[in-house]
Amino acid sequence: MTSTVPALVTPSASAPFEASTVEVRDVGAHDVQIDVAYAGICHSDIHQVREEWGPALFPMVPGHEIAGIVSAIGDGVTRYAVGDRVGVGCFVDSCRECENCLAGEEQFCLKGNVPTYNGRQYSGEPTYGGYSRRVVVDENYVLGIPEGLALDAAAPLLCAGITTYSPLKHWGAGPGTRVAVVGMGGLGHMGVQIAHALGAHVTVLSQTLSKREDGMRLGADEYYATSDPETFSRLRGSFDLIINTVSADVDVDAYLGTLRRNGSLVFVGLPEDAQTFRVGSVIGGRRSIAGSNIGGIRETQEMLDFCAEHGIAAEIELIDASHVNEAYDRVVRSDVRYRFVIDTATIPAS
Ligand code: NAP
Ligand code: ZN
Ligand code: ZN
Questions:
Q1: Which ligand is nearest to the CA of 118?
Q2: How many A from CA of 53 to the centre of ligand 2?
Q3: 102 C-alpha to center of ligand 3: Å?
Q4: Ligand 1 centre and the CA of 184: distance in Å?
Q5: Residues of each domain in the chain carrying CATH 3.40.50.720
Q6: Ligand closest to the CA atom of residue 243
Q7: Of 44, 159, 182, 213, which is best to mutate to test ligand 1, by the most ligand atoms within 8 angstroms of its C-beta?
Q8: 160-291 sits in which CATH class?
Q9: CATH architecture assigned to 2-158+315-346
């Protein structure tokens, strides 16, 4: 059985959002029903709505930065109770038995995890995300949002937060390490705060200096414009770790040149096209190119607790449902400071 829930729906690729409805399943034994309060707009939502990563499933209700309140639970639920503040990130199920699931890295499930939207449950039902008044999710894929975090500013942590926290931890960002964050957008502004809280020396590489003041306030030690022809020569051999959040093509060789010996350039931004590099750029200095994808459930909870402890959250522009189309265009123009979050109460009941 399902119920009909107000949602922002895009009927086909690149079509504007319409206030409509979506069918949400009734609560099963292990399910948590969440009244969505806030949903962040991730650049990945835009890539998928516009089919920049290949064919997508329509109608689509995006949203994988979800924060809300538990409004019902199934009989078998033990982790959450009605009234709890909770979040949902980029996936809502996984096989639970492959080596990656067993390691708590469900983002790399070998069977393929179930994406929060633009995907299918293992039963074949399509999934719908957080631009909606309600979602129903298995309790094992729901996160607890600590009391110290405001729900609206916490929503973006469910993707932008974990996507930067996970590689920073994996590659050992901390005291004595030099970290660069490329792109001062949704992911980038979280990466700066988290890397700073971990104790790393943080440099932002942005296209211009227009967000410099914000970057320094959020914890950057240095800030450079990639449009300045001298930036890359000045920074040769500087960084142990670069987290590249750029959603478009980058000059990979130029960034590799700014790594110290044994340094790593880690892609989290996922552009449409293949990126190329010269082999000489990694041979010199024994450098690595790597990638990272969100994080597992256990690490996502760890990240939320870390952010609460360190007073870290997203800087957001809270918008009504009627402004989502315009917000998409602004994100693409790098004109967001630093995450749009939809107040889902403004999705009209039709
Ligand atoms: P965003 O808010 O749009 O931020 C991207 C930033 O990249 C912009 O603010 C801009 O920073 C910079 N940028 C944009 N276009 C550029 C260009 N043509 N050249 C150079 N720099 C450019 O996007 P986001 O939500 O942070 O997501 C960023 C990327 O990460 C997207 O591709 C998204 O799909 C991907 N993503 C990956 C994961 C994962 O798990 N790996 C998770 C979430 C998102 P400046 O203005 O400072 O230059
Ligand atoms: Zn995302
Ligand atoms: Zn698995």
A1: 2
A2: 13
A3: 7
A4: 8
A5: 160-291
A6: 1
A7: 44
A8: alpha beta
A9: Alpha-Beta Complex (3.90)
Indicate which residue's Cα is closest to atom 32 of ligand 1. Answer: 247
User: Going residue by residue through the chain (350 aa), what tens digit of pLDDT does each one get?
Assistant: 999 999 999 999 989 999 999 999 999 999 999 999 999 999 999 999 999 999 999 999 999 999 999 999 999 999 999 999 999 999 999 999 999 999 999 999 999 999 999 999 999 999 999 999 999 999 999 999 999 999 999 999 999 999 999 999 999 999 999 999 999 999 999 999 999 999 999 999 999 999 999 999 999 999 999 999 899 999 999 999 999 999 999 999 999 999 999 999 999 999 989 999 999 999 999 999 999 999 999 999 999 999 999 999 999 999 999 999 999 999 999 999 999 999 999 999 96
What is the rounded CA–CA span in Å between residue 239 and residue 261? 9
- Quickly count: other Cβ atoms within 10 Å of residue 274's Cβ: 6
Contact of 10 with 58, CB cutoff 8 Å: yes
Q: How far apart are CA 6 and CA 339, in angstroms?
A: 23
Answer whether 88's CB lies under 8 Å from 141's CB: yes
DSSP string for residues in 195-208: HHHTT-EEEEEESS
